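To whoever is on call:

I kicked off a structure prediction for a single chain this morning and the downstream step that reads the tokens threw a length-mismatch warning. I double-checked the sequence; it's 247 residues and nothing unusual in it as far as I can see. Pasting both halves so you can look.
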Amino acid sequence: MNTVTIDARNLHYTPLNQRIREEIAKGVKEIVINNVLGQRFIGDGLRSEGVTITVNGVPGGDLAMFMSGPTIIVHGNADHAPGNTMDKGKVVIHGSAGDAVAHSMRGGRIYVRDNIGYRGGIHMKRYLEKRPILVVGGGARAFLGESMAGGIIIVLGLKGVRPISEQGVGSGIHGGEIFVRGPVDDLCLGSGSRQAPATEEQKAMIRPIIEDFAKTFGMDASPLLAAEYTRIAATSARPFANKYTWE
């Protein structure tokens, strides 16, 4: 059997996650979890290639933490920190997500159809060929990309939502790139970050990412590809160097 359905109604997260691991160990490649309501740690630490987990409901915190390989599709919203320190794989959220989305993420992709909370992409990093990617269809709250060290964040501002409207974007950023569809108020920039219109080369670089995001959610990519983007990056590889005292 390559597909298993699990009813998570009134099921504690520990036996739920144990069941997921047991099924994968048996060779199951498709797992559908129904009636999810706040169960935490779904998909955490899984290292199985070619596995897809479909979550129907609202998963709790740290979805896909330390995950390396599987795809998780959420039909609903997600709580805080999905993709925390994720190494590889894909998380698709057909709704909104809470704070600290992609916290310390070091590989793979996270697509959020709607909005995210505070400190999305905090401490994202890149290692060798691994480049984490976070795409937000709606808007992001304050301190997006705080202390970011690598990877790509794209915020699209769909459905009339302002993609960036709060402070601290790129605060302490020292690597990676943030792309925002449309202009960004200078007042929203955090310490150590700078903005400039995305070049044609940079837009070509993010084009396949936007196309994949649009395909994932059944959207028309044309208006997104035709839009102008703002690129936010680090002013220095050591944004707080002048805060230290040297002997």
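Update from on-call: the warning came from a stale cache, not from the record. Cleared it. Sanity check on the structure: The chain has two domains: 1-71, 96-240.
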